[in-house]
Amino acid sequence: MEFGLRNGMMHFKNAILGIGAVALVIAAAQSHAACAPDKVSQKYPGYAGRAVVVAVTPMTPPFAFTNPDNLGEVTGLEVELMEGVMACAGLEIEWLIGKWTGILPTVFSGASDLMIGNVVYSEDRAKQGDFVVFIRNSQTVVVRKGNPRRIVGLDSLCGLQAAQTIGAASALAMQDYSDKCVAAGKPAIDILMAENQESAFRQLSANRVDMVMEGAEGATRRIKSPSGQNNLEAAFSVTADAMAGAITRNDNDEMLQILADGMTAMKEDGRIDELFDKYQISREQFSPIRILKK
Fold this sequence. Notes:
This protein is an alpha+beta fold.
């Protein structure tokens, strides 16, 4: 299957999707995607009688973030999506909330059933996990107000300093750009790895780095926030066909089916479109629901 990219991002395709990726379009799910919450034991016997543990980091707005009205809760597009998916299957959710670096391993160990929060498919992650994707990933390079280093495109990143969250899609992309700089005979990008995006942006605000790459939707919200309006701006954005969605461990085919069935049902009845509108994400970023495996 061909994953075309725009804005000169062919190298991003290789780094994020991986040449060996297998994409399975959910054709089988179409025939039995209707919600049947009273048939858990027949459709998903491995989950009958127990809650689904969903790992999430509340630092990826608008996909998953802390509810400002209740700091003990998470909300966001993917949170509501999972609530709808599990209700469709007749299952309850037990949320496992934590930092990115701490909760992704819980999927691979089996301590959680899946993880959400703008988790982008990569060849490395596919060694241990399978995906059900539904959205194309976009990234924005955020700089200090006034863009003092005059960052205007990918070619202007070489030799600069960036802060990125360990293991995040933006970190993978930034490393790929750095490798391209070196291959072209230019200085590498000096990448400071941060525990989370909040830490990365503190480095930017403190003038310790020149830029932070973040998902386009989260970057827009951050720049428009009270603290960002006078301090941050977008240098440029890159839209790619790298896919994001929910990740589960390699051997959990039943959870893949639960996710595919529920997402398909929610797309067919318009609820996914409503969530995109609610969280101000262009419907053009929706990607046909797929299971992605290595």
